[in-house]
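Case study 2.
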Amino acid sequence: MAKHIGIVACSAEGAALCYRTICTEAPSKMGEHMHPEVTMHTHALGEYMIAIREGNWEKIAELMLSSTQKVSQIGAQFAICPDNTIHQAFDFVKDKSPIPWLHIAEAVAKKAREDGFKHLAILGTKYLMTGPVYPVTLKKFNITSQIPDENDRERIDDIIFNELVNGVFTEDSRLYFNEVIAKFKNQGCDAAVLGCTEIPLIVDSDDCPLPVLDSTRLLARAAIKEALA
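Prediction:
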């Protein structure tokens, strides 16, 4: 029997992509129309945003743990969170969690190491890009990273919160992401981390200046692997 996956969600679009990936990719390993049991819970993104803007990571951990308790009570045997930014609260969560967790940045780092990437461009919310989630995790894998300049960080953050989380995907924003990634290519990066779980919905990997590491789908694949372990 596959393990029951618990999804601690934050924003709708990223969580939906993660859930959909689990359900569409598991059948190749489990049989037609088959996937592990999946339970998802989320508090409103607005509740998370109040705490994020205050830099109150302990409050964010409380919200994450509340969701973890709920999915655990239903039967989830481990948890994932398809949101990179709130992983900054991960250390507050892991020791109090009733079930084990997979870490989204570790899923990305493992794939980067597998593919031989050494220097990654990090794209995500401004809180994620300037925070410790990826630098700390990638250091364990001897992988370096860099982030956009302040102007690009602000525009990326604006696109995420005013467009992507609301299901708005424009051609102008897609081309802008490609422009930013092209800058990273010129600066020596060998791959780009799509470190906001909505970015894969707008960036086309076949039309991108660098190979992409899709954090949402990589986490979903790690969850399938763990469920079948």
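The first helix runs from residue 12 to 25.
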